[in-house]
Amino acid sequence: MSQIIVVTSGKGGVGKTTTSASFGSGLALKGHKTVIIDFDIGLRNLDLIMGCERRVVYDFVNVVNDEANLNQALIKDKRVDNLFLLPASQTRNKDALTREGVERIFDQLTNEHNFDYIVCDSPAGIEHGALMALYFADEAIIVTNPEVSSVRDSDRILGILASQSRRAERGEDPVKERMLLTRYCPTRVASGDMLCIEDIEEILAIPLIGVIPESGDVLKASNSGSPVILDSESNAAQAYSDAVDRFLGEEVPLRFITEEKPGLFKRLFGGKG
Amino acid sequence: MKPNNQKQDSFRLRGSFFTLSAMELYSADIDSIDEQLTKNIALAPKFFEKAPLVIDLEKINGKIPNLSTLKQLLEKHNLIPVAVCSSKKAHQTAAHKAGLGILTANAPAPQAETIPNQTKETETDDHQKEVEAAPHYEVKNHGLVIRHAVRSGQQIYARGGDLTVLASVSTGAEILADGNIHIYGTLRGRAFAGASGDTDAMIFCHSLQAELVSIAGHYQLNEKIDSNYLNKRTVTHLQDERLLIDLLD
Ligand SMILES: Nc1ncnc2c1ncn2[C@@H]1O[C@H](COP(=O)(O)OP(=O)(O)OP(=O)(O)O)[C@@H](O)[C@H]1O
Ligand SMILES: [Mg+2]
Asked: For the domain with range B125-247, which CATH number is right: 3.40.50.720, 3.90.1150.10, 3.30.950.10, 2.160.20.70?
């Protein structure tokens, strides 16, 4: 049985697509057959970040409309084994997805393609596209930035998961909710410009699965079409790997959450600014 | 598939009880009704949206408003007037003219329930055993217990009873109860106790950070709450039409 994971946030631009790409890659690197689906119909971002935009022939909407089959639309990642991508359409609008169509594709991904994980990259907002991305979810990764508006939107999405997901409608066990704090900047938290981890945990009251630091490596990685988690030197990559480990049940301490102490050299001889 | 040789009824009439909100009218002045409606609805817009409503004329002294005008006013506010409640013949004739149904007696006090949102609810045990020896008090109603956080955008209404939330109530969430409200977490959203007018209702919470607290329509916004009570365990209650907050510790 595939596990369906939705990566969602309510608020836009908080790092859902970055997270879907890295998290999906991380699961595949651990040996789990994983597909990442771009639910952001009309925008197409995921294939860019994954560096396979030139290999897109058919997309998610084509499969929903029976214009292509899954084998034709699934793109196999060239760097990571077990990793596949189902790209979004750039030419359709978000209403092109129907519940029946999406359910049929999930059934095939589960039963014919035997995926372990289906990672759904949700569009921002709480409209059709976002509702569709979360409807079938077993697990939710709530991507949150350490600021009030993002936390508020995450809270809203949690309410929607609790009332409008298929699990909620059927009265089954609720969607398993976990939060991933991204773009965390310890210096700005220390100066009071951003909310700290404890405050956010208190407000959202769901388990924290990781804290990804603000890092220039993220933009560099997406410009070069490679999920940041593959850049193993990077703090962001290591933080994403930790999050995947925690998702899979390991206990890993949080890293990169305090201000970097100046090094010994700098302390002894002083440094500029 | 239904067998087509057997003719199916297209409907069945059955007696049923529904809980409806009633608007107990004290004045015939359409403008002041309009003004108050605007205020009340602004407090809980989603709760009132498309809500069926009974116009209760039992308490009005003297003149009643033109019911067609009142009906239009309610519809303008996105409410759906369905009937008039009154034992007076004149009122009933007016209701009839305005195309409204007629109800005569108030239904007995209903049990707790939630309606407005699709949120899961748990009802408390209906059959509380009486302990014969202990002095007993008349208990008005049973309550509704919510075990999960009430999130932004969600709304829960314990109609006819108390509401207990075992978690926090988020900013942007609304909880309503005709009786008391108990929150074992932090109240960050809006809470309306005594939502149908019970001035004895109270709001208890473990940490008060509410956007708004209201009892029987008397409300206070966050900015008006004395900072000595913020983030504290408190009880909010009404005394002589004034909203008071006390510390619980
Ligand atoms: N940890 C990070 N450090 C620095 N920049 C980041 C980080 N995570 C994401 N970003 C940047 O934030 C921007 C938005 O990221 P992304 O596209 O993943 O967000 P999104 O939530 O998918 O946005 P949308 O709501 O538009 O789909 C991008 O420019 C990305 O490079
Ligand atoms: Mg995105």
From this structure: 2.160.20.70
What are the boundaries of each domain within chain B?
21-103, 125-247
Lowest mean pLDDT among A178-182, B82-86, B168-172, B180-184: B82-86
Domain B21-103: which topology? Alpha-Beta Plaits (3.30.70)
From the list B119, B148, B152, which residue is nearest A156 (CB)? B152
CA distance B27 to B40: 16
Environment class of residue A173 by beta-carbon count within 10 Å: exposed (0-12), middle (13-18) or buried (19+)? exposed
Whether the predicted pLDDT of A263 surpasses 90: no
pTM equals 0.73
Closest-approach residue (CA) in chain B for A126:
B153
Residue A188 zone, left/alpha/beta (φ > 0; ψ -120 to 50; rest): alpha
Across the interface, whether the CB atoms of A162 and B173 are under 8 A apart is answered no
Question: Rounded to whole angstroms, what are the CA distances from A236 to A198, A214, A220, A228, B185?
Answer: 20, 7, 12, 7, 34
Question: What residues of A are in contact with residue B118 (Cβ under 8 Å)?
Answer: 163-164, 168
Cβ-Cβ contacts under 8 Å for A87 (sequence gap 6 or more): A38, A44, A46, A47, A52, A53, A56, A59, A60, A73, A75
Could you tell me which chain A residue has the CA closest to the CA of B117?
A163
| Confidence tier at B119 by pLDDT (50, 70, 90) | very low
Q: Which residues contact A25 (CB under 8 A, 6 or more apart)?
A: A34, A77, A80, A83, A227, A229, A230
Contact in structure between A167 and A175 (CB atoms under 8 Å): yes
The set of long-range contacts for B65-69, using a CB threshold of 8 Å and a minimum separation of 24, is B65/B25, B65/B27, B65/B28, B65/B29, B65/B30, B65/B33, B66/B30, B66/B94, B67/B94, B67/B95, B67/B97, B67/B98, B67/B100, B68/B97, B68/B98, B68/B99, B69/B30
